[in-house]
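Reviewer 2 asked us to include a model.

Predict the structure of this chain.
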Amino acid sequence: MKAIWEETKTAIKPCIPGHCFRMWIEPLKMTRCDEGSIVLSSPNLFSKKRVLNNYGALMESELNRVAGKAYRLLIEVSKTEAPPRPKVDENFQLQLPNMNACLYNGRFLRKDFTFDQFVVGGNNDFAYSASLSLASRKNTQQNSLFLLSKTGMGKSHLSQAIGHYILSEYPSERVYYITAEDFSNEMIHAYRHGSINKFKGKYRNQCDVLLLEDVHYLSGKERTQIELALTLDTLFESGKKIIFSSCYLPVEIPKLHDKLRSRLSCTLISTIEPPKFNTRVRILQKKAKLNGYELPEDVIGYLAGELIEDVRQLESGLIGVTAKSSLLGSPIDLALAESVVKNIVRQRENITIDAIKKLVCKYYGISVKDIVSSSRRQSIVRPRQIAIYLSRRYTDSPLQTIGKSFNRYHATALHSIGAVEREIKEKSPMQKQVEFLCRRLESGKF
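Predicted model (structure tokens):
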């Protein structure tokens, strides 16, 4: 029977992309042949689900053709000895159940950002496979990954899924999840307080897996870039795992140190594209099930057909439909879905950079001429930064176009976006101002 399985693998190999075959089919081993069933072993539960969902029907069909007899294909997770428990310090505090994963350093991992909760489609198949391969250590030569996509496409989900998987399978590993901005701020704090050697030692000697988000925010921060490049050299030489994420390719990030750009460019770059219709449907189904929502199939199909920009827009539509149904006590039907989607799509179509300029200028009592001028007065700089941030958030214009419309280089535009995002995270007075302007834009009152 093992010869039949090997022949089946040979038959299905041309039908599956090469990287998918190596990732999912090659690790399967035939364990036994029961009455009417052929049982294969899979290295883990993730692999089992992935194979059955995507290749199960093809495999069973080819298996029956090769064997000349109808068999039922079954997959079991192989039983391997659990890794030895790491020795821990008596003062080490165990994590509470049902909490977000707490790492050795940096931010928490969202508990729902796992491989199991990630919906795989043609738009992100390679990124998913590369992420799981790195996390499960299928390819021992792959130590780094660069996840590339626009905002809202799932790169943070995959990055954190790698962290979750490694913490689950290799509990002694030291995993750091941090944004590039936080890394920069931590380094500046270390210099100011005379603890730079401690900072260097932590990242270079006490880190096994580094998850570094939004590396494009290092643009122009030369001192941080040099320190990061040296840290990355140490980690790479030690065979540590490094996962980057960004909205831009390394060659597109302005004011980036050559050494750091070279290091990022040598990483396996995986692009995540906007999801296709069938993937959008599965995303809505999974998120509805996860949150306990019940949506008719025609409503899910409608939302998937109209909300095509990114995963966050899909989530916005799902939340809008369920919230409106709950508040009005109305059933979830096409009419209700259309009323929600109409507002989301119409708002996006009508919001332009010029409309944002006029709204911001009116709110702050300045002129359009002021906002595109070379003035560095705070009364002008702040509104300009907010207008650039809103232009990036509510329009599809590339960064170069946005910068040009404000008479700025795209590096300056990137800095403005980062400055506003920091203020929002810190819940400064600017946060309320930005929220008000967002509500005006989203309501169409501009």
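The chain has four domains: 2-77, 105-271, 277-349, 351-443. The CA atoms of residues 376 and 382 lie 9 Å apart. We have added this to the supplementary material.
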